[in-house]
């Protein structure tokens, strides 16, 4: 990840700071995810804000922003699969794996055909191991890798197991391949692009990356950063977790949950759930009360919402 200077200024004064929900933002190219959070914070006048998955400055697309009580959703929302559309240039390798990096190798890729690319892609579908790039936000020894990379250091990184559910060639023209990918959290699409380039024997780097989906959220639902204005469209907390199993609680049970009495949910366990599966607890008005998890055939509270 590389820092940049924000270019967008909020078009209106801060709104009342009583908003709770998930704002779906279409991040522009050239700024960090933290820049987006800072700009939304200034725009709406709410301090409790966080995002659910970093996009590099070069990347664009869907960035879910959790506001107010929705910040408690972040650990659950980051677990979802991600979808992207991307473009990679064959024959040029950079130190970062993307267009923001320094060119370190060049090879002639004029002989590569679309059929050859399509033949290589299946090997990258399924459970694969990736070595995180040096220009990433992972912390090792208390330092983020991109900080070490800026200082000219390169250290050994352990490979990580990720899952690629689909990898499709959309177009190949003038040495650029456009592809779509659906993958698990923690997958580096630029590493995927460089690995495909290596498999073709010519190298590659990512020139475009656009996130089109994150968990339940879709890019079509997002609003461009420079078009955000009141009234703000927010996904309700309960709707953001609509893929979870659901238990509705009465007033007495809700009070016990808010009082921190974990035994209040132990006997609410729905049947057919696996150990570790998450459950959303809803009030009778449909609002989210809490998230619980199946542990040894009983529900245990994980998060309680005001």
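^ structure tokens above, recovered residues below v
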């Amino acid at each position: 990840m590389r820092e940049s200077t924000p270019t967008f200024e909020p078009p209106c004064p801060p709104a009342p700071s009583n908003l709770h929900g998930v704002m779906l933002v279409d991040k522009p190219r050239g700024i960090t995810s933290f820049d987006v959070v800072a700009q939304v914070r200034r725009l709406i006048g709410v301090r409790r804000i966080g995002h659910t998955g970093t996009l590099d400055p070069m990347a664009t697309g869907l960035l879910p922003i959790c506001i107010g009580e929705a910040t408690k959703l972040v650990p659950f929302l980051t677990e979802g699969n991600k979808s992207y559309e991307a473009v990679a240039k064959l024959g040029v390798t950079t130190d970062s794996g993307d267009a923001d990096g320094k060119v370190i190798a060049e090879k002639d890729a004029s002989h590569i055909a679309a059929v050859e690319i399509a033949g290589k892609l299946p090997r990258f579908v399924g459970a694969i191991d990736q070595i995180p790039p040096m220009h990433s936000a992972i912390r090792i020894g208390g330092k983020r890798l991109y900080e070490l990379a800026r200082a000219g250091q390169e250290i050994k990184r352990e490979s990580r197991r990720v899952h690629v559910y689909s990898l499709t060639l959309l177009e190949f023209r003038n040495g650029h391949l456009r592809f779509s990918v659906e993958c698990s959290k923690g997958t580096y699409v630029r590493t995927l692009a460089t690995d495909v380039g290596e498999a073709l024997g010519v190298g590659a780097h990512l020139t475009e990356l656009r996130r089109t989906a994150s968990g339940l959220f879709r890019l079509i639902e997002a609003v461009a950063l420079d078009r955000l204005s009141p009234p703000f469209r927010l996904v309700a907390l309960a709707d953001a977790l609509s893929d979870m199993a659901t238990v509705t609680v009465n007033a007495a049970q809700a009070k016990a949950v808010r009082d921190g009495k974990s035994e209040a949910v132990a006997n609410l366990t729905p049947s057919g759930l696996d150990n570790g599966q998450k459950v959303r607890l809803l009030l009778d008005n449909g609002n989210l009360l809490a998230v619980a998890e199946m542990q040894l055939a009983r529900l245990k509270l994980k998060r309680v919402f005001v």
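The radius of gyration is 22 Å.
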